[in-house]
Amino acid sequence: MGCELGKLASRDNRNGARKFEEPTPPQVQVDPRLPLTAKQKYNMMASWKGISRAMESTGVCMFLKLFEEHSELLLLFEKFKSLKSKEDQATSLELAEHATTVMSTLDEGIKGLDDLDTFFEYLNQVGASHRRIPGFKAEYFWRIEKPFLEAVETTLGDRYTSNVENIYKITIKFIIETLVKGFENANAT
Ligand code: HEM
């Protein structure tokens, strides 16, 4: 009986008078606020699994690179501003702990690419929380962009193809823009 109905449906289709809705193809729509295509978002989330298995080492690597290029930023960190040498920084428990906290924030952000309302709310709030840091400026967020990409490259190795690099570049820019907006909007109130 089910088969009969199926035949009827297909005959209707041929005549152009469709009684049954055709199944729609799987939707590949993304939120228009997302600067990634559906495929790029999928690849980003798949690639991030490689980073989420190495959060601490990637985060420490990122901060070492940040302080290597911008040693003045070290002074903002009460807990480890006295760690002048790279060796001291690399073996500091406090720095590792902070690096993991920041990486967990990025982890939440990247997992939130599927739900941009939550993504914006969460990262705006993290951006705003930097208002409590004496001397912090919104532009400092951009200083982590290059160290982040270099640390990801170190962790992913061969998996960091030019396509993957491009997707990470778009994603970190999007995350930093959101942190900056959160910081600035908190500033305005
Ligand atoms: C991807 C960008 C960043 C994210 C996701 C991020 C995230 C966070 C989070 C979640 C905290 C709170 C930690 C806590 O309450 O224990 C924090 C604190 C802090 N962040 Fe950031 N941050 C970012 C970039 C930066 C940059 C570039 C600087 C450099 C100046 C910075 C400076 C600080 C400082 C000084 C603190 C306070 C640390 C403390 O109280 O011990 N952040 N950050």
UniProtKB/TrEMBL annotation:
Domain of life: Eukaryota
Transmembrane segments: none
Keywords: Heme, Iron, Metal-binding, Oxygen transport, Transport
Region listing for Disordered, in residue ranges: 1-30
GO molecular function, one term: heme binding
SUPFAM superfamilies: Globin-like
Biased composition (Basic and acidic residues): 9-22
InterPro entries linked: Globin, Globin-like_OT, Globin-like_sf, Globin/Proto
PANTHER family with a match to the protein in the record: BLR2807 PROTEIN, GLOBIN FAMILY PROFILE DOMAIN-CONTAINING PROTEIN
Name this polypeptide is given: Globin domain-containing protein
Source organism of this protein record: Dendroctonus ponderosae
